[in-house]
Amino acid sequence: MKTRNIIFYFIALFALCSCDDMFVPADENNRQTEDMTEESKYAHGLLIYAYDRLPYIKTTQTDIATDDAVTNQSNSAYLNMATGTWAADNDPMSQWNGCKDGIQYVNLFLSIVDRVKWAPSAASKQQMFVDRLKGEAYGLRALLYYYLLQAHGGYADDGKLYGVPLLTAPEDGSSDFNQPRATFAECVQQCFADCDSAMALLPADFKDLESGEVIPDKYLALGANESGYNLVFGKKASGLLSGKIAEAIKAQIALLAASPAFREQSGVTSAEAAALCANVLKRIGGMEGFDETGSIWYKNKTKLEPSASEMPEILWRESRQKDDDQESDNFPPTLYGDGRVNPSQNLVDAFPMRNGRPITDPNSGYDPQNPYANRDPRLDDDVIYNGVTFRRVQIITGKYPNDKGWSDDNLGSIATSTRTGYYLKKLLRDDVSPSSSGSLIEQQHIYPRIRYTEIFLAYAEAANDAWGPKNDPTSVGFTAYDVIKAIRQRAGLATNEVGIPLPEGDAYLEECASSQDKMTDLIRNERRLELCFENKRFWDLRRWLLPLNEPVNGVRITRDEETFELTYSYFEVEKRRYDSSYQCYGPIPKGEILKWSKLVQNKGWQ
């Protein structure tokens, strides 16, 4: 049973018997904490509620608040934030309430888990359930704190780097809610400790025992057998937080802490972050586990079906879901979509040429009169540009005088048309039909939570920062250079066809590999391209201390009606009104600052 099904089942169960308030039960429901120890499903509901508070976003949303995209949805909170309304009392990026609620559920669960009768008739099953559920809880708490740190960690006026209030015990009606923020470093160490606890209690993967595999001694001593072990730790639990996932969460936290925005007082170095990322990657054989089709998992229709095996690219994901959310939001208007996410010219310009060189490089071969020719193949995977045929329809974003009628796909034609001259293509299934005529066709989707490509890129970033492009002092067997080379080869760069190298090879990569600073820029750009539209860019810009207020540009395409030659002119679509002097760190919600005197605000926020 996958996570989503488990959550829905237990939320329904918990809703029937839960309190109207977390601390004071309603008059008609007098269940107390001790009652949960007798009813395991009721107790498990606390953990399921914590899962439900995980802040993973399934569709493309936050990229429209960055230089990668804009939206045509005029009432978008992210658009308003990016154009000047971001404030401590108006923060669409806030994780405060949801993550703190999840931590409260985890802490309450941990306070009773040892006393709950999970399997009172079998000591081995009882202990296995306790261990697994505690492991999940520790991992969830680390993950929830990670998102809090990412959104709310920052420097206060006293020059100290703070995290959030650090709570490891449940609060109740008698608790002192006026708690100060722990330092960022203290929060990171608690996250690390929770991840270590999770890894000590959980198997790397939830799978049934195979021939020759043995049950751990501590469970054998309690009389465990194979069927009992598989019941608790087997494939039926796949989709829940495992030891391998906890290890990846620890690596993500380390990368955040070692980033330029936090490293000075986080207590974590890039070398430590690289080592933690390497631990995750060694489980799949390092570069041997690199998925050659990992960047286009969403196109692998066979693997998306419920009966399919797991994808080697995806470490953790939502359950497969049959929907058309991403397509109905983002298909061009002529395909019955709302064209919500419009990739920027900034992002399009970040895709290099097929030979691997940036379009600004004099040796790249870039032709301003034919700007989409011989480009990085990922551009075709990710962006619909003028003239592209998608779902057997040619999408025209330019405006051609004397053409037969105007297409709704043209730049700015109607409310759902593109504002930049581009439409989103990445993550979309071309066999979905979000038709307004009643012939809606939904298809299966997978929404990743953690992709291995993200961990490979995290390793490359940290390893290059710690040791340079080609050094491997810890003997993990691969370097930052090796990772970026594999990613660019997978994309088909410096090849005539994928796998067939050009005579000069990836010369630009070799140039970057001679300089740590150049390699840093290349790694960041590769991360931008590989993870675009996956809600990563906003957080990356901030942790790198890069400008948030780059204007977002688009393209206006016209056609000469005698020669049919196209002309490309570029224009500013939307100003970004961030203040990079302090908005690289998010605010503590203003309401919390007003309520609790011990909370300090991040510098610059009112």
Walk me through this protein's architecture:
This protein is 39% helix and 9% strand. It has 22 helices and 16 strands. The strands form 8 sheets. It has a two-stranded antiparallel sheet with strand order 1-6. A two-stranded antiparallel ribbon has the order 2-3. Strands 4-12 form a two-stranded antiparallel ribbon. A hairpin with a 2-residue loop joins β8 and β9. The protein has 606 residues and is mostly helical. It has a domain of 200 residues: Alpha Horseshoe (Serine Threonine Protein Phosphatase 5, Tetratricopeptide repeat), CATH 1.25.40.890.
Secondary structure category:
mainly alpha
What is the terminal separation in angstroms?
46 Å
Radius of gyration: 25 Å
Task: Work out the number of β strands.
Answer: 16
Q: Please identify the top-level CATH class of the domain at 1-55 and 95-239.
A: Mainly Alpha
Offer a quick outline of the entry.
Helices cover 39% and strands 9% of the residues.
Give short descriptive properties of this protein.
mainly alpha, Serine Threonine Protein Phosphatase 5, Tetratricopeptide repeat, two-stranded antiparallel ribbon, two-stranded antiparallel sheet, 606 residues
